[in-house]
Amino acid sequence: MSHCCPTDVPAVRSDYEPKGSEVTLPEGGPMAYTSGSGNSRALIIVYDIFGMSGQAKQVCDKFADAGFNCIMPDFFEGKPWPLENFPPADWAPFKAWIGTAGSYDTVRPAIERATAYAKANGATSVGVLGFCWGAGIAMSAGASGNYAAVGSAHPSFITPEGAEALKCPMAFLLSKDEAPIDPIKAVLDARADIGSKCFYKSFPDMHHGWCAARGDWSDETQAKRATEAIGDLLAFFNTNMPSA
Q1: Closest to 173 in 3D by CA, of 98, 231, 108, 87
Q2: How far, rounded to the nearest angstrom, does the alpha carbon of residue 51 sit from its chain's CA centroid?
């Protein structure tokens, strides 16, 4: 699963009114959307290619309502992939952009600053949740040993090598559009330390991106399946990140 965005479904503009606030992360930023307070558990949210969408903020708010402090850094610093340019007429510039702006080396400082912010605000357990390209970021972060659990929905850029390097359990929620992840599952199933704690679920009636900016949650079926997926992720993180 080494490519990004296996769908032509465009992003959906959302009229959701966020409950959280914006802060500047320490040591020079970037800006981050935060939701939730006073909790011992925090989630770093890695949005999809469309950046700070209403759907991404709504996901943060749902996790905050369930007892997590959520921090979603603006990794693209106000310059996500334009909604009006998807699908792109020419995929080469897109691939070059995500290969640079979305690389772990590029976003790691924001991940680390968000983690420091979470701990400074009372978190004793931190996880990472990534959508689309963010799944690869979550997997890379999970290899650092700094996180209790990592998760993904409609994942891209995940590999068997990344699975081998994981130091914590990972959740994988798949749409109909992603390639099978059997080689990744085989690696994790063989891991005595974390294999049994990982989570896998397919949503064969959903398209890539239904849990983030491509999700049209005014559609009853998409909204129901997004709620189901968020519930699955909550159960996974609750299991692997118990409250203090």
Answers
A1: 231
A2: 11
DSSP 8-state assignment for residue 179: P
Q: How far is CA 152 from the centre of its chain?
A: 5
Amino acid occupying residue 220: E
pLDDT band at 81 (very low <50, low <70, confident <90, very high): very high
Q: Which residues contact 176 (CB under 8 A, 6 or more apart)?
A: 202, 203, 204, 205, 206, 207, 208
Cα–Cα distance between 187 and 159 in angstroms, integer? Answer: 10
| Alpha-carbon Rg for the chain in angstroms | 16
Average pLDDT over residues 137-165: 97
Instruction: Report the C-alpha gap between 162 and 214 in whole angstroms.
Output: 26
Q: Are 163 and 187 in contact (CB under 8 A)?
A: yes
- Cβ atoms of residues 122 and 45 within 8 Å: no
Q: In whole angstroms, what is the distance from residue 139 CA to residue 171 CA? A: 10
Per-residue DSSP letter, 55: H
pLDDT the model gives residue 228: 95
Could you give the angle at which helices 104-120 and 134-142 cross, rounded to 10 degrees?
70
Residue in 35, 25, 77, 83 with CA at minimum distance from that of residue 58: 35
Distance in angstroms (rounded) separating the CA atoms of residues 125 and 41: 5
For 18, the token pair is 């966020």
- Both tokens of residue 239? 């299991």
CA 145 to chain centre: 18
Give me the pLDDT at residue 79, please: 96
Residue 136 CA to residue 151 CA, distance in Å, equals: 10
* 135/156 Cα distance (integer angstroms): 6
